[in-house]
C-alpha cells in the first residue's frame, strides 16, 4: 500500500527525464509499426526466404543458448563461489565480449577458428574441418557474443542467493557437487532462466560477429538481422516486414517467459 | 549506423593487417588547423571552405581518399569527409535523408534510385570496372589456369563447383554483376557467402578464408601483393559503370561541384586509371 503511494509521488526532476526515456525507447518501435505495409504483410511473409531466415535465427540462437548454459553456469559458479586465485582477472576476461564491438569479435574468431587461424588451420589439416561460412560458425559467433550475458546474470543470482542453505547441506554431509545440483541450482533457477532469456535475445539479434565470421548465405548463415540489413539496401518495405517478425518473436518470448519464470526476479 | 560503418572500417583494418599500404584517410586532415567549418575568409582567395561530404562506393575508397586530399591541399579551409559503403546502402541512406553533397555509385541502377527520388540530376559516368577472380597467394584450391593455356579462360575453367567462393550480395552493384557472370557461366550454386560490399569479399580472400572471390579489377589493382587475380571471359557481360552526381540540396554545392569536376577531369581520370579503373 505505502509503496504504491510513494510510486505515484515521483518528483518532477525524475519524472520528466524518465518520461523522455520511455518515449525515446518506445518511439522507434511505434515508427516500425506505423511504417509497416500491412496490406502486403501476408504475401511478404510467405516469401520463402523469410521462413528460412527465421528458422535459422531461432535454431542458432537456441543452440547458442544451450551451449552458453552448459559452459556458462559452471563458469558463473566458479566466479561466484570458488576460491580460485585471479578470479577478478578471470571475470574481466569473460566479460570482454560484452564490451567488445561484435565485428571485432568476428575478426578475432576468424584469426582463431578461420581456415588460416591458430586453431582453425589445425582443424582443417587434421579433419578437413572448416568452420567459417557454416551454421556452426553462426552458433559460435552468437555464443561468443551472448554467453557473457548469461554468466553475469547467473553470477549475480549466485551472489544474491543465501549461502547458508549450501552450508547447511554441507554440514549434513553433501559434497560440493551434490550441493550444487540439489541446493544451488534450484535456488538460482530463476536467475538462470533470466540469464538464458537475455542470452537468447542477444543471440537472436546478433549481427556484427555473424556477418564477419559466418558470412551471409540464405539458409545456412543468413539470420534475420542479416536479412533485414541486406533487404534495407534494396527494398526498405521488405526490411520493415522482416523487422516486424523479429520484434514479434522477441516480444512473444519476453511475455511468455515473464509470466512463467521471471516474475520472481 | 555503426553497423553500416563497420564494413568499411573492418576492411581498412584488415587491409593494414595484411600489410597493404592503405591510404591513411582524412583523419589527419580533419584535425588540421583552420579547417573548421565556417571559418572567416582570409585575405586573398580563400578557395572552398567548410565541410564536403562524399558518399562513394566501397570500391572507390583508395582513389577518392586520394582525390579528396588533393582538393583539401588546394583548399586549406575545406574538409572532405567520406562515407564508403555498398552503393545500395548509400542510396538508401540518401533516400532516408542522409546529408551528402556528392554521390558516386558503382552502378547506374543505384544512381537511378537517387535520380528517381529527385535527389540528384545529370549523373555523369566517370569510370568502368569489370569483375576479376581474386585468389589467395597460396591458391589453396588450384584455381590458376595451366601456364601454357593462351587467351582468357571462361569462369567455369577456373573454378570448380566445390570450392569456397565469396561474392557480393545481389543487393549491391558488384553482386548484381557477379550474379550475371555466374548465371552465364552456369555456376549459380557455387557461392558460399554473399558479402555486403566488395571490400568484405576482398578481405576474405586476403585472409585465405575463401578459395576465391569475385571482385573488381580496381580492387585487385590495389592489392597485388596480397591476392592473385584472373580475368575471365564472362566479365565482359557485366561491366559496372560508375556515375557521379552533385546532390540537389547539397549543404556545400560549390565544393561538391569542384569534387565532381575533379573526378571527371583529366587529373581525376589519370588517378582512376592508376587505381585500375577503365575509362568509360
Would you write up a description of this structure?
The complex is a heterodimer of chains A (265) and B (280). By secondary structure, chain A is an all-alpha fold. Chain A has helices spanning 2-8, 12-35, 41-45, 48-81, 87-99, 102-113, 120-127, 135-160, 163-171, 176-204, 208-214, 224-234, 236-260. Chain A has a single domain, classed as MetI-like fold (Orthogonal Bundle), CATH 1.10.3720. The mean pLDDT of chain A is 88. Chain B is of the alpha/beta class. Chain B has helices at residues 2-17, 27-30, 61-74, 87-95, 108-116, 155-158, 173-185, 198-206, 217-221, 253-264, 266-274; strands spanning 50-57, 78-85, 102-104, 124-129, 131-135, 165-168, 191-195, 212-216, 228-230, 240-246. In chain B, strands 2-1-3-10-4 form a five-stranded mixed β-sheet. A five-stranded mixed β-sheet of chain B has the order 7-6-8-5-9. Chain B is elongated. Chain B starts with a helix and ends in a 6-residue tail after the last helix. Mean pLDDT of chain B is 83; it is low at 1-43. Chains A and B meet through α6, α11 and α12 of A and α1, α4 and β7 of B.
Question: What is this entry, summarized?
Answer:
Chain A is mainly alpha-helical and 265 residues long. Chain A is 79% helix and 0% strand. Chain A has one domain: MetI-like fold (Orthogonal Bundle), CATH 1.10.3720.
Radius of gyration of chain B: 19 Å
**How many helical stretches of chain B?**
11
Order of helices and strands of chain B: HHEHEHEHEEHEHEHEHEEHH
User: Mean pLDDT score of chain A, rounded?
Assistant: 88
Give the total of domains of chain B.
Answer: 2
Structural class of chain B: alpha/beta
In terms of topology, how is this protein built?
The complex is a heterodimer of chains A (265) and B (280).
Chain A: H1 2-8, H2 12-35, H3 41-45, H4 48-81, H5 87-99, H6 102-113, H7 120-127, H8 135-160, H9 163-171, H10 176-204, H11 208-214, H12 224-234, H13 236-260
Helix pairs in contact in A: 2-13, 4-8, 4-10, 5-8, 6-11, 8-10, 8-11, 9-10, 10-13, 12-13
Chain B: H1 2-17, H2 27-30, E1 50-57, H3 61-74, E2 78-85, H4 87-95, E3 102-104, H5 108-116, E4 124-129, E5 131-135, H6 155-158, E6 165-168, H7 173-185, E7 191-195, H8 198-206, E8 212-216, H9 217-221, E9 228-230, E10 240-246, H10 253-264, H11 266-274
Parallel strand pairs in B: 1-2, 1-3, 6-7, 6-8
Antiparallel strand pairs in B: 3-10, 4-10, 5-8, 5-9
Amino acid at each position: 500500500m505505502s509503496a504504491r503511494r510513494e510510486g505515484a509521488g515521483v518528483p518532477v526532476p525524475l519524472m520528466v527525464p524518465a518520461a523522455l526515456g520511455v518515449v525515446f525507447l518506445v518511439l522507434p518501435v511505434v515508427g516500425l509499426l506505423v511504417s509497416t505495409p500491412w496490406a502486403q504483410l501476408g504475401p511478404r511473409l510467405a516469401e520463402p526466404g523469410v521462413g528460412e531466415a527465421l528458422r535459422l535465427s531461432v535454431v542458432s540462437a537456441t543452440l547458442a543458448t544451450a551451449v552458453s548454459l552448459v559452459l556458462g553456469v559452471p563458469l558463473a559458479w566458479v566466479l561466484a563461489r570458488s576460491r580460485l586465485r585471479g578470479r577478478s582477472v578471470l571475470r574481466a576476461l569473460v566479460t570482454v565480449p560484452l564490451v567488445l564491438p561484435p565485428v571485432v569479435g568476428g575478426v578475432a574468431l576468424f584469426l582463431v577458428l578461420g581456415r588460416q587461424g591458430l586453431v582453425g588451420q589445425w582443424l582443417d589439416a587434421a579433419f578437413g574441418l572448416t568452420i567459417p561460412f557454416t551454421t556452426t560458425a553462426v552458433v559460435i559467433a552468437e555464443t561468443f557474443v551472448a554467453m557473457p550475458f548469461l554468466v553475469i546474470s547467473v553470477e549475480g543470482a549466485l551472489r544474491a542467493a543465501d549461502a547458508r542453505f549450501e552450508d547447511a547441506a554441507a554440514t549434513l554431509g553433501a559434497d560440493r557437487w551434490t550441493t550444487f545440483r540439489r541446493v544451488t541450482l534450484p535456488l538460482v533457477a530463476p536467475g538462470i532462466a533470466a540469464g538464458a532469456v537475455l542470452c537468447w535475445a542477444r543471440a537472436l539479434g546478433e549481427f556484427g560477429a555473424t556477418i564477419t565470421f559466418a558470412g551471409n548465405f540464405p539458409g545456412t548463415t543468413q539470420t534475420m538481422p542479416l536479412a533485414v540489413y541486406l533487404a534495407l539496401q534494396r527494398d526498405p518495405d521488405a526490411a520493415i516486414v522482416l523487422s516486424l517478425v523479429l520484434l514479434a518473436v522477441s516480444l512473444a518470448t519476453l511475455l511468455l517467459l515473464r509470466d512463467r519464470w521471471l516474475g520472481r526476479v | 549506423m555503426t553497423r553500416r560503418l563497420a564494413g568499411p572500417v573492418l576492411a581498412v583494418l584488415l587491409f593494414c593487417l595484411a600489410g597493404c599500404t592503405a591510404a591513411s584517410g582524412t583523419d589527419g586532415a580533419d584535425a588540421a588547423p583552420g579547417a573548421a567549418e565556417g571559418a572567416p575568409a582570409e585575405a586573398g582567395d580563400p578557395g572552398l571552405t567548410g565541410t564536403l561530404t562524399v558518399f562513394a562506393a566501397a570500391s572507390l575508397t583508395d582513389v577518392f581518399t586520394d582525390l579528396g586530399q588533393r582538393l583539401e591541399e588546394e583548399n586549406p579551409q575545406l574538409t572532405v569527409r567520406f562515407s564508403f559503403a555498398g552503393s545500395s546502402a548509400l542510396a538508401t541512406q540518401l533516400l532516408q535523408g542522409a546529408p551528402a553533397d556528392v554521390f558516386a555509385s558503382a552502378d547506374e541502377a543505384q544512381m537511378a534510385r537517387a535520380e528517381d527520388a529527385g535527389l540528384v540530376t545529370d549523373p555523369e559516368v566517370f569510370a568502368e570496372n569489370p569483375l576479376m577472380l581474386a585468389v589467395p597467394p597460396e591458391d589453396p584450391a588450384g584455381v590458376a589456369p595451366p601456364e601454357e593455356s593462351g587467351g582468357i579462360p571462361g569462369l567455369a575453367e577456373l573454378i570448380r563447383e566445390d570450392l569456397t567462393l565469396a561474392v557480393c550480395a545481389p543487393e549491391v552493384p558488384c553482386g548484381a554483376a557477379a550474379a550475371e557472370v555466374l548465371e552465364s557461366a552456369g555456376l549459380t550454386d557455387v557461392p558460399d557467402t554473399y558479402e555486403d560490399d566488395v571490400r568484405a569479399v576482398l578481405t576474405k580472400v586476403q585472409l585465405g578464408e575463401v578459395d576465391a572471390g569475385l571482385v573488381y579489377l580496381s580492387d585487385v589493382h590495389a592489392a597485388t601483393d596480397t591476392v592473385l587475380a584472373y580475368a575471365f571471359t564472362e566479365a565482359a557481360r557485366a561491366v559496372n559503370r560508375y556515375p557521379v552526381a552533385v546532390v540537389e540540396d547539397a549543404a556545400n554545392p560549390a565544393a561538391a561541384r569542384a569534387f565532381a569536376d575533379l573526378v571527371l577531369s583529366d587529373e581525376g581520370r589519370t588517378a582512376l586509371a592508376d587505381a585500375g579503373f577503365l575509362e568509360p
